[in-house]
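User: I'm curious whether this sequence folds into something compact or stays loose and floppy. Could you predict its structure so I can see for myself?
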Amino acid sequence: MAILKVVADAVVEFVLDKVVAKIVRDSGPFLSCRIWRRNEDFRVSYAALLCVAEGDQYVLVRKKRRGHYAPLGGLFKGTPESKPILHGLEFRPERHDQNALGDLRGFLPRRNAAAFDQWFQSGEARETDKDCVMREVNEELSARGLAGVALPTTARFTKLRFVGEGPERPAGEAYAQYRHLRFFDLASYEEPTMRAFVDRLMELGQTNEALLIASADEILRGVARDGRLIANHAAYFFQGQPAARWEPRPVGT
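Assistant: Here's the prediction. I'll summarize afterward.
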């Protein structure tokens, strides 16, 4: 009997270890969300951003809502097929205007944060990374009066880094949030159409206030030589952490 008890205890311990390991693995950074304050609002924001640079000169674009300068790109959108999935996760979009339809930024119960992230990572019923970058960059440039400048349809991108920020509580807010930022670089700067796109942005950045050409040092300081503010997540262009400064919640921005 003693031997049977030892075997039974070992089996129970083994199963519990496997169960706990699976919960931790599936929850990722959201384990705390599954344990306490499960019903509280939790903000999520998922975006794709593009690094366009020449040496130490990085292209940034002015964000209309806050006036600072940040990387080109913006929020992923779900496809029409995502509606029942998001409904099941109790997701509520942060904005409801026409331009924001489908944006993957909003609120849901904390207990559903891990499931939302797992759905996004699966790639199901959402834009592909390339489609998001293409759409967001071209929409941003057009909205800033630069309709004649657009990514070539043949553009290719390479992964620069994927960043998860949080969960953390933004200063002055009652909710916690998680932001997933996917940074991409141009696969080739030397293809003729891509070379023309980059050269045009660099040229416009010298005279058009919708764009800012900033150095790595300016990005890390969070302010350009002429005093224009730079969003802290631009530092992910060249390092694994944001610049530590004024701006608590950049994206989508």
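Summary: Residues 217 and 224 are 9 Å apart (CA to CA). Strands lie at 41-51, 53-54, 57-62, 69-70, 72-75, 92-93, 105-109, 157-168, 176-186, 211-214.
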